[in-house]
Amino acid sequence: MKILFLLLSFTCYFSLATDEVYIDFWGKDKNKPKAEIKITLEPKATPEAPIVKSPERPIGGRSYITEEVIPYLYEKEKDDPEKNQPLFGLGLGDDFLGNGNLHPGFTIPTGAVWQPRLWFYGTSRTSVGTYDLGENSLQTSEWATRLDLFGNLQLTGTERILVGVTPFHRDNDFLGQVFDPANSKESTNPTNLRVRTLFFEGDLAEIFPKFDPLDSKGLDIGFSIGRQSVLFQDGMLINDTIDAFGLTKNNIRFNENAWLTNLRVTALWGFNEVNRDNNEESDDAQLFGLLTAMDTIWSTFEADAIYVDADDKDGSDLFVWGLSSTKRIHEHYNWTLRYLGSNAVDDETAVSSDGHLLFTEVSWTPKGTYDVIYINGFAGIDNYTSASRDELAGGPLGRTGTLFAARGVGNYPSPLSNQAQQALGAAIGYQYFFDNKTQHIILETGLRRDTTNESPDFIGLGAQWQKSFGKRYLIQVDSFIRGEEDGEAGYGVRTEFQVKF
């Protein structure tokens, strides 16, 4: 009993400041402890984990950077089948996707570290073809060449200056020769050094890191200024190379909206080189746009609006908008739905009209293959007109299929018109990949119907074969047969050879 009383009659308390423990034992006098024991705690020494050199270090040991030298996957960069370096350059800075250490660069007054690298690259395209569109048309053959050259001064991962020239063509004139129906030959030589691309792009937070050293203020605003390609709504809203200034804020998120994974907002001002819907340049037209994209857990949505300000001689002002949704259905089908509209602010003209365009794309890959089946369709209501279209872009329906697409070199036409005014149409195709995906064949059928009954309806069959080889070279053959309502059939075939350097 006394032992039990002794065990229950003590107080234990700790001194955190001195790592000590006090134990008091109490007797009959409740105001004074009978005895007190002080125990000083000494922390147990914890030996550091031994440093073991690779490869003997055990799994779960301390973090370290291995001292083992890991060889390159390819001793020579040219042996890498996935790498396609530019053919030539000035040797400024690090090589494109090169092996070894990076150049340290230098710090500019804003605090950013720049590592300049200068690379040159481009594409050469040569096309030979012949075509006859049938009723009221004669056979025409042509040879055309296009060369796109670019110089890329990469300053950081986000800042660069890009300059590009197209010395072998100007607008719709290409270096080459046209054989007209009268058996005469017409040579064209529009060689020039006109600059078609020149812009600087970057990120404000990366250029001025001192304003947000902890990267916590949301100053990651991208910008671009100069002559550049602008394409939205897959080129149906705008597809042109213009002098423009743009600001983009990406990765906008709201904590209370978990369904929103990313929001991108772009403000655009196009102040020169603006073409109209007829693919011709307007001397004084400018455009102003607000362009947004939103990634959600269900789909990707786009909502865009552009206002074109033009003089009366270039057509009236135009307001154009576009809405779209792109998503996966049952994790197997890709579906895109677009609605675009245009409204002439003043009187309607050929380049400023009221109208609407509905467009849909569905595609999927058959099980066990890399092939693609696609079904695309459109409905043009009244006279939809785009905000701006490049000389070689054709109309807004080029994405419908190969029968509607503009070629971008020479004057070989699209078998079915890619203009969106008052028309219904569709294309169904199968893209077959083989030879380790270095070759493909596309077989497609398409139709276009005029809803005003003022123009004939057309149906077409098209085929394309493409082969890539040597990492830089590509050969392509296109052909078509077109049937016209109550008219003659048309046909065409072309071969194109590309070199990427």
Structure explained in plain terms:
- This protein is mainly β and 501 residues long.
- It folds into two domains: 1-70, no CATH class; 116-195 and 255-260 and 276-281 and 295-500, Beta Barrel (Porin).
- 2% of the residues lie in helices and 50% in strands.
- The chain has two helices and 27 strands.
- It has helices spanning 2-8, 204-207; strands at residues 10-15, 20-26, 33-40, 106-107, 113-114, 117-132, 140-154, 160-165, 169-170, 173-179, 185-188, 195-203, 221-232, 238-249, 260-272, 286-296, 300-309, 318-329, 333-344, 355-364, 372-382, 388-389, 423-434, 439-450, 458-469, 473-484, 490-500.
- It has an 18-stranded antiparallel β-barrel. The protein has a three-stranded antiparallel sheet with strand order 1-2-3.
- A hairpin with a 4-residue loop joins strand 23 (423-434) and strand 24.
Key traits:
disordered N terminus, 18-stranded antiparallel barrel, 3-stranded antiparallel beta sheet, Porin
Q: What letter string, H or E per element, gives the SSE order?
A: HEEEEEEEEEEEEHEEEEEEEEEEEEEEE
By CATH, the architecture of the largest domain is named Beta Barrel
* Bulk shape: globular
Provide mean pLDDT, rounded.
85
Query: What is the percentage of strand-forming residues?
Result: over 45%
CATH topology of the largest domain: Porin
Roughly how many Å is the radius of gyration?
A: 34 Å
Query: What is the makeup of the main sheet?
Result: 18 strands, antiparallel, barrel
Name the CATH homologous superfamily of the largest domain: Porin
Tell how many strands the DSSP assignment holds: 27
Distance between the termini: 98 Å
Note poorly predicted spans. 1-19, 43-61
